[in-house]
Amino acid sequence: MNGMLPWAISFALIAVTLAMIFTAIRLLRGPAAEDRVLALDTLYVNSMIMMLTLGIQFGSRFYFDIALLIALFGFVGSAAMAKFLLRGEVIEP
Amino acid sequence: MTDGVIPFWVDLLGSLLLISGSLLTLIGSLGLLRLPNLFARMHGITLGNTLGLGCVLLTSILIASIHAERFVFQEVLITLFMISTSPVTTILLMRSGIYRRRMDADRKTAGHQDSSNPG
Amino acid sequence: MKRWPSLTLFTVILFALWLLLNDSLAPGQLLLGLMLTVAITASTAAIRPLRAHPHHLLTALGLFFVVLIDIIRSNIAVAGIILGPAKRRFNSAFMKIPLDLRDPYGLAALACIITATPGTVWAGLSPDGGTLTIHVLDLQDEEAWVRIIKQRYERRLMEIFE
């Protein structure tokens, strides 16, 4: 343990947690369905940033794989929800 | 952290990048609460999507390369993926927002509190 | 055979992504990656009917750095707007921009650039492709935005794709 990196990691974890709380408030408050989808989209990006920060803290490469998977599934999820709001169905005939 | 001693410049640069990245993410999510309507809120989340994530990814590349004593840049994959996908979600949401506002205006219902007018 | 260059670029990028994902240069991975990328390129050629013909790769590199600088600058600007007084936060509006770019790949790149830059979001293209609608967070001077989009991005994209 040397230098200021551990402090920076703690700061980053606190900041991202606060960001996730803000996002969750918007997710619960709405008002429109698009706001909730937008908040969910932000929530997955924030959780990805948190995973990367944890990966830096523990010096493990597994967190990178988790972040990559969150990116993949998060995009598919929010794109499907946005498409549903736009057209009423996800996969059109 | 592993017990390896990292050089001073890596310590400084990594800390700066990590702090600025997380601060940008925090401000972007704060924008979700502070901005007045859906279309304005969309600009807030781009902060975390672009530079916030980019700073943290750079820090991750830096620290992992120092620990592994070779150049590790797998994080570029996440960058490429986010560059190509996050605009798609945002544009789809934008279009559905415009479409649904227009449908609501057509139906003359006052269900939504947002006061923005679709273009 | 005229279509070959774009095909190989796609294959090379896929191959590089495969090696990066596995983080190795072992002979087995090289062979597997080569087989996979050739198979994927051959089988998806039918669902990519339009081929991009990018040239002037140096211009593309210049565009990349221009966009990078713009993203950093507008990140700071948007952060200032979010933290700033309420007056500036209620300034968002839609605006229209006349467009000369017609190449679909160029338009896709322009959509990515505009949306990835904080402060502007792509909001739609008119059916004839001549007018672009964007949403701007802090709209004060419409001409300035038209100038930025047309001179900084559209001119370079037309050089690359047309």
Automatic annotation (TrEMBL), chain A:
<dbReference type="InterPro" id="IPR007208">
    <property type="entry name" value="MrpF/PhaF-like"/>
</dbReference>
<dbReference type="GO" id="GO:0005886">
    <property type="term" value="C:plasma membrane"/>
</dbReference>
<protein>
    <submittedName>
        <fullName>Multisubunit potassium/proton antiporter, PhaF subunit</fullName>
    </submittedName>
</protein>
<keyword id="KW-0406">Ion transport</keyword>
<keyword id="KW-0812">Transmembrane</keyword>
<keyword id="KW-1133">Transmembrane helix</keyword>
<comment type="similarity">
    <text>Belongs to the CPA3 antiporters (TC 2.A.63) subunit F family.</text>
</comment>
<dbReference type="Pfam" id="PF04066">
    <property type="entry name" value="MrpF_PhaF"/>
</dbReference>
<feature type="transmembrane region" description="Helical">
    <location>
        <begin position="37"/>
        <end position="56"/>
    </location>
</feature>
<keyword id="KW-1003">Cell membrane</keyword>
<feature type="transmembrane region" description="Helical">
    <location>
        <begin position="6"/>
        <end position="25"/>
    </location>
</feature>
<keyword id="KW-0813">Transport</keyword>
<dbReference type="GO" id="GO:0015385">
    <property type="term" value="F:sodium:proton antiporter activity"/>
</dbReference>
<feature type="transmembrane region" description="Helical">
    <location>
        <begin position="62"/>
        <end position="86"/>
    </location>
</feature>
<keyword id="KW-0472">Membrane</keyword>
From TrEMBL, chain B:
<feature type="transmembrane region" description="Helical">
    <location>
        <begin position="12"/>
        <end position="33"/>
    </location>
</feature>
<dbReference type="GO" id="GO:0015385">
    <property type="term" value="F:sodium:proton antiporter activity"/>
</dbReference>
<keyword id="KW-1133">Transmembrane helix</keyword>
<protein>
    <submittedName>
        <fullName>Multisubunit potassium/proton antiporter, PhaG subunit</fullName>
    </submittedName>
</protein>
<keyword id="KW-0472">Membrane</keyword>
<keyword id="KW-0812">Transmembrane</keyword>
<feature type="transmembrane region" description="Helical">
    <location>
        <begin position="72"/>
        <end position="93"/>
    </location>
</feature>
<dbReference type="Pfam" id="PF03334">
    <property type="entry name" value="PhaG_MnhG_YufB"/>
</dbReference>
<dbReference type="InterPro" id="IPR005133">
    <property type="entry name" value="PhaG_MnhG_YufB"/>
</dbReference>
<feature type="transmembrane region" description="Helical">
    <location>
        <begin position="45"/>
        <end position="66"/>
    </location>
</feature>
Automatic annotation (TrEMBL), chain C:
<keyword id="KW-1003">Cell membrane</keyword>
<dbReference type="GO" id="GO:0005886">
    <property type="term" value="C:plasma membrane"/>
</dbReference>
<keyword id="KW-0472">Membrane</keyword>
<feature type="transmembrane region" description="Helical">
    <location>
        <begin position="63"/>
        <end position="84"/>
    </location>
</feature>
<comment type="similarity">
    <text>Belongs to the CPA3 antiporters (TC 2.A.63) subunit E family.</text>
</comment>
<keyword id="KW-0812">Transmembrane</keyword>
<dbReference type="GO" id="GO:0008324">
    <property type="term" value="F:monoatomic cation transmembrane transporter activity"/>
</dbReference>
<dbReference type="Pfam" id="PF01899">
    <property type="entry name" value="MNHE"/>
</dbReference>
<protein>
    <submittedName>
        <fullName>Multisubunit potassium/proton antiporter, PhaE subunit</fullName>
    </submittedName>
</protein>
<keyword id="KW-1133">Transmembrane helix</keyword>
<feature type="transmembrane region" description="Helical">
    <location>
        <begin position="105"/>
        <end position="125"/>
    </location>
</feature>
<dbReference type="InterPro" id="IPR002758">
    <property type="entry name" value="Cation_antiport_E"/>
</dbReference>
